[in-house]
Amino acid sequence: MIQAQTLGELLSKPAVPIATSAHRDGAPRPEQTQAPRDRLDRPLRSLRVSLIDMCNLRCNYCMPGEEYAWLPRDDILDVEETGRLVEAFTGLGVEKVRLTGGEPLMRREVRQVVERLAGIPQIRDISLTTNGVLLARHAEGLAEAGLHRLTVSLDTLQADRFRRLTRRDDLHHVLKGIEAAHSAGLENLKINTVVMRGFNDDELADLIEFGTESGAEVRFIEYMDVGGATQWSLDRVVSKQQMLESLRQRFGPIQELSRNGTAPADRYALPDGTVFGVIASTTDPFCRTCDRSRLTADGVWFLCLYAADGLDLRSPLRGGASIDEIKDLIAEKWMQRSDRGAEERAELNSLRGPLYQIEDLRKDPHREMHTRGG
Ligand code: SF4
Fold this sequence. Notes:
Bound molecules: iron/sulfur cluster
Order of helices and strands: HEHEHEHEHHEHEHEEEEEEHHHHH
Radius of gyration: 20 Å
Helix content: 25-40%
Strand order of the largest sheet: 7-8-9-6-5-4-3-2-1-10-11-12
Number of strands: 12
CATH topology: TIM Barrel
Number of domains: 1
Structural class: alpha/beta
Distance between the termini: 23 Å
Shape: globular
CATH superfamily: Aldolase class I
């Protein structure tokens, strides 16, 4: 956690140069360059890679519409291009890679991508976030390919609510998928639940108990105003404190646990030792320790979930740039980073509304959550 230095002091500091291809003078290039740090002194450690912008659900806080302008198929990185770009990032200190979408299991080559990443020695953690609908079919293959951890997005255990939220009738598939993940030996299973007032805020205890039965740790996510959340409003947000109060009333005293490094979730234990998490990016943002960035399926790199623009890495890659040249592009960009999107949104307080309206999203599909990979 950054201490002492104020935001102003950090931003006034000149960027710290790293060993870049200035070493072109023939000096041997270090195998793993020291991780570049951004203007808030945050390292580049964790990369979320979207494999596809399409999804087989239509959750109304992400894809409120039915028809979408998908990314041009020819722009989608193939397995080797994805692998090479990730190698550029791991050469700069990235050691955790999370595969996302849209729905990553809709990407036919998902297993090949996991195998490709499992062959990169610097990566110590390969995880994947899925909505679980296709999981029963893929769980074993993903485990064999080298996937370390799996997260299933599940916002309700009630079939009618699932149908209302996603406009699909697939809850039973998701539940089968979670069973299959367990049988495939994918340990450390997590369940992510977006909590919305008046929709599923009465299911927190049920979801925790379901998690215990399924060998999964539940993380409750505060409703966020990003991407397709065009219906977002502050009064529909159930804050971390409100969730804890509701669980305290049901289970008794709750013990706060230490955070897992820079992972976004605050973690807690119930009296019986059951552990759960809360990701409070709306009411208690954690930008000061954020070492995460996102790569879209067509190779655009976003330094923050709320960033308006990203850096196109596909064109230099397809233009023949070397991995070292791409590492320089990434390092230069990261060193200029001062993003703290969720903090800035929180500072809007009651003036805060949805980040985008439908017409804004139509202008650039990269603004969509299902393109950025959440
Ligand atoms: S809002 Fe941006 S800076 Fe803040 S935690 Fe999320 S990605 Fe990181």
